[in-house]
Each structure stands twice: as C-alpha cells, then as structure tokens.
Amino acid sequence: MLHFQRRQLAGLRGILTGGSSGVGRAVAIALAEAGVDLVITGRREQRLLAVAEAAAEAPGRLLPLAGDITAADFRRRLVEHATAELGGLDLVVAAAGSGAIGPFVQASPKVLREIFDVDFFAPAELVRLSLPLLAAGRTPAVVLVGSILGLHPLPLHAEYSAAKAALHGLATALRPELADEGIGLLLAVLGPTESEFWDNLLTGQRPGWSQGRPLSAEATASAIVRALGAGRQTVHPGWRAKAFAGLARFCPAVIDWTIRRKRQAPRRS
Ligand SMILES: NC(=O)c1ccc[n+]([C@@H]2O[C@H](COP(=O)([O-])OP(=O)(O)OC[C@H]3O[C@@H](n4cnc5c(N)ncnc54)[C@H](OP(=O)(O)O)[C@@H]3O)[C@@H](O)[C@H]2O)c1
C-alpha cells in the first residue's frame, strides 16, 4: 500500500544533508520551526554552526555535524550520531548536491564521478543505512531533493541531469518498498532556486536559462515542509518547476525547441 499519511512534524527526529547553505539550510530552519530535531550536515562547520544559531529560538533543535557525505565512514558516523543524540530516526532529508556545466566531451571522468557521488550514491546509501531505524520511527519519511533536469535532461548539463534522473528513478522504485515498511518518500523536484549552487559548480558557469527570478530558498523550503506534513509523494515548488514538469510530461519538444534557441555553449573552466 502506498503511503499518504498526514504527518505531525512536531517532535520528529531527523538527519538533513546540505544544511550549510541554500535549500538545505532553509528546510532545516523551517523544520526546526515546526518542532523537528535535526542533525544537520555539510562540510563547512562554521556555516552549520551559524544555521543552528539562526534557529536557536525555534522549538526544534539543529545539531551540526560536519563531514563529507560522499564518504561511507562519515555516513555511518552521521547515522550513529543522530541515533545517539535524538534517540531514534523519523526523517532523512537529502538536500546536498552539486553540479557542473559544459560540453560532456570536454569534461573528465572525475567530474562525472564526483557529481554521481554527491547527487546519487550519497543519498542512496544514506537512505539504505537509515532504513532499519526509520522503520522503527514515528510516521517516518525520506525526502530526496531532485531537479527538473531529472525529469527532462538538458544539453550541457549531462552529468548533473543523469545523476538527478537516477535519483528520480531510485525514488520511484523505492517508494512502494518503503511504503511496505510504513515509510513515506517525498521527491522534491526543484526548478531554478536562489542558493550557492551556481557559485559552487565543479565546472562551467551559470547558464542563461537558470537566471531571471529564481524561487527563494525559503519559499522552496516552505513548499517542501508543507508537502512533507501532508504526506505527499512529490512536490514541484514554484510555477517554473510546475510548468517545466507539465511540458516535460506532455510536450517535451517545446523544451527542446526553447533550449536550442537559447543555447550558447559555454566552455568549461
Ligand atoms: N539551486 C537550484 O537552482 C537547484 C535546482 C534544482 C535542484 N537543486 C538541488 O537542490 C539541492 C540543494 O542545492 P542548493 O541549490 O541549495 O545549492 P547550495 O547552496 O550549493 O547547497 C548545496 C549543499 O550541499 C552540500 N554539499 C555539497 N557537496 C557535499 C559533500 N561532498 N559533502 C557534504 N555536503 C555537501 C553543501 O555543503 P558544504 O559545501 O558545506 O559541504 C551545501 O550545503 C541540491 O540537491 C541541488 O541539486 C538546486
């Protein structure tokens, strides 16, 4: 049976990756304000401490633990730490991500591996590691942060699109398996969002299509947290993500045509 259970967020205990900036930071603060206790993670410890400080008055606690989510040892330590500090696990929110732009032929196997490590293998293995604990949790759920490029991959975004498409595939395959254990799975499909994502690209520069007026990280977070509380399976924060998802499903040729017109091939740097 698939899981549509509404969820009372106050009192839940979780892990959140990507908590040091952008969407992860905003979701962490929104969840703390909803009364969730979270271990937040990212590599930049000072940033995590600042996020915890920003939510100091919230009913939920944010407990920073810095580390590289692509390292299996760190993922184990993260889950053990959360269990020891929080006494169990009800939520895993995988928001960490990184991207690269440019012609695939100019990139290296290293970039492809790095993107897949952060955007696919790390969340997949963190979920696998957490499942026994989640199965014993209260209204448990996994939140995976995907992208509109996981719905309809774009040229010059090959590694990132492929990793997000893999994450979306994992979400679809896992959802019924997790439902058997009473665990919900929410896939957040993001369009252009204000964050540090484009400053931290492994290669290339921000493309024109992502500019304009991206959705704020806070509006994105509030849509994700509402969808989590409502027990939904997917959320597309903002009209751009919704419109792109509609086109990707019913009229993908329009996306391809628009991209062909706008495309200027940036060199990798
Ligand atoms: N911004 C957009 O337009 C957009 C669109 C679609 C989807 N998304 C997705 O939204 C999610 C959040 O990204 P964002 O936009 O908020 O970008 P961001 O501000 O750059 O945040 C990325 C987060 O991931 C963490 N991270 C990256 N590599 C890591 C590693 N190896 N180990 C641990 N943490 C790591 C970063 O922390 P540290 O640097 O401290 O390690 C940071 O907290 C990502 O999954 C991204 O793919 C973003």
Q: Tell me roughly what share of residues is in helical segments.
A: 40-55%
Whole-number average pLDDT? 94
Question: What top-tier CATH class fits best?
Answer: Alpha Beta
Number of helices in the DSSP assignment: 8
Distance from first to last alpha carbon: 48 Å
Which sequence of SSEs, written as H and E, runs from N to C? EHEHEHEHEHEHEHH
Tell me the name of the CATH homologous superfamily.
NAD(P)-binding Rossmann-like Domain
Shape: globular
CATH architectural designation: 3-Layer(aba) Sandwich
**CATH-assigned fold name:** Rossmann fold
Count of the domains: 1
The ligands bound in this entry are: NADP nicotinamide-adenine-dinucleotide phosphate
Describe this structure in words.
This protein has a single domain (13-262), classed as Rossmann fold (3-Layer(aba) Sandwich). The protein has eight helices and seven strands. By secondary structure, the protein is of the alpha/beta class. The longest helix is centred in the middle third of the chain and has 27 residues, at 109-135. 46% of the residues lie in helices and 13% in strands. Helix 5 links the parallel strand 5 and strand 6. Helix 1 (22-33) packs across helix 6, helix 3 (72-86) runs parallel beside helix 4 and helix 4 packs parallel to helix 5. It has helices at 22-33, 45-54, 72-86, 109-135, 158-180, 217-229, 238-250, 252-262; strands at residues 13-17, 37-42, 62-66, 91-94, 141-147, 184-190, 234-235. Strands 3-2-1-4-5-6-7 form a seven-stranded parallel beta sheet, sandwiched between helices. NADP nicotinamide-adenine-dinucleotide phosphate (NAP) binds next to helix 1 and strand 5.
